[in-house]
Specification:
The chain is of the alpha+beta class. Helix content is 21%, strand content 26%. Strand 10 and strand 11 form a beta hairpin.
Length: 247
C-alpha cells in the first residue's frame, strides 16, 4: 500500500457528495531505493495499477502504514539517535519504538510491493519473525538493517482528505538489497512495473505532487552525502496554507 500524503488525486470520488470527516493521520513510511553506482543518481519507482482508486496509474515510491508486526521484527542495526529523535519530533506523546517501527514499515512495504528485501545476511536469519511478509526475510536469511536508512523528509496529508497519512520518507542504497523475490510486480499487482530512473527522468513521470517535492529534498541530501545532522524538511497544512518547517 502506498501512502503519498499530499496528492489531491488520492481522494475517493465516491465521497464527492458529502464533505469527508476529519481524520487523524496514520503513521506511515516510504522507502526510496537509490542507485549511486554511476555518475547520475537513479531512484526506483513503481507505477500503481491504473484501476486503483488511490493514485491509480501514478509513479510512486513503495510505502505504507505501520502494521503491528513491524513492532515485533528483529533487526541487525539501529537507527542513529539523531534520526530517531527527528522521527519523534513535534510528537509530544510519541512511543519510544516509533522510529524503529516506521523504518521497519518502510522495509516491509518495499518487499510487499517490489520483492526486494532490504537488510543483511551477515548475521544469519532472524531467530523469529512475525507471520506475513516478514516470514520471507526469515526464509531468505535476511535481517533488516535500519542503520542503512537515511531520513529524507516528513509530510502530513492536509485535512479534509478521505485518507490521511503522516509519512516519513527514507532513502537506502541499492547495495542494501540482500535478496529479491520475483513475481510480485505485474499486471494484476499493486505495482504493475518498476523503473530505475535518474532524477530528471523521474520528474517527467506522472507523479503525485508531494513526490516531486521530495525529489528535490532527496537530491539536496544526496549531493551533501546525507550528513547526519542536516535539517529534515517537514510538510503540513495549517488553516489552509501549506507550510514547510525543519526538524
Amino acid at each position: 500500500m502506498n501512502s503519498d500524503p499530499l496528492d489531491p488525486d488520492g481522494r475517493d470520488p465516491s465521497a464527492a457528495a458529502a464533505p469527508p470527516p476529519r481524520l487523524r493521520p496514520r503513521d506511515a513510511a516510504t522507502l526510496i531505493v537509490l542507485d549511486r553506482s554511476r555518475k547520475r543518481l537513479k531512484v526506483l519507482m513503481g507505477r500503481r495499477h491504473a484501476g486503483l482508486a488511490f493514485m491509480g496509474g501514478k509513479f510512486v515510491f513503495p510505502g505504507g502504514r505501520i502494521e503491528a508486526s513491524d513492532r515485533q521484527m528483529p533487526v541487525a542495526g539501529a537507527l542513529s539517535q539523531r534520526t530517531d529523535d527527528a522521527l519523534r519530533a513535534k510528537l509530544p506523546r510519541a512511543p519510544h519504538h516509533l522510529g524503529r517501527s516506521l523504518a521497519l514499515a518502510a522495509i516491509r512495504e518495499t518487499y510487499e510491493e517490489t520483492g526486494l528485501l532490504i537488510g543483511t545476511r551477515d548475521y544469519g536469519p532472524p531467530e523469529t519473525a512475525p507471520e506475513g511478509a516478514w516470514r520471507a526475510f526469515h526464509e531468505e536469511g535476511v535481517m533488516p538493517d535500519l542503520e542503512a536508512l537515511h531520513l529524507v523528509a516528513r509530510a502530513i496529508t492536509p485535512p479534509k482528505r478521505v485518507r490521511r497519512f503522516d509519512t516519513r520518507f527514507f532513502a537506502v542504497d541499492r547495495r542494501a538489497v540482500a535478496a529479491e523475490r520475483p513475481g510480485i510486480v505485474g499486471p494484476d499487482a499493486e505495482l504493475t512495473e518498476l523503473a530505475w530512473v535518474d532524477l530528471a527522468a523521474a520528474r517527467k513521470l506522472d507523479l503525485p505532487r508531494i513526490t516531486r517535492v521530495i525529489l528535490d529534498d532527496l537530491e539536496a541530501a544526496a549531493e551533501a552525502g546525507f550528513p547526519p545532522y542536516r535539517p529534515i524538511p517537514f510538510y503540513f497544512e495549517r488553516r489552509g496554507k501549506g507550510l514547510r518547517e525543519e526538524i
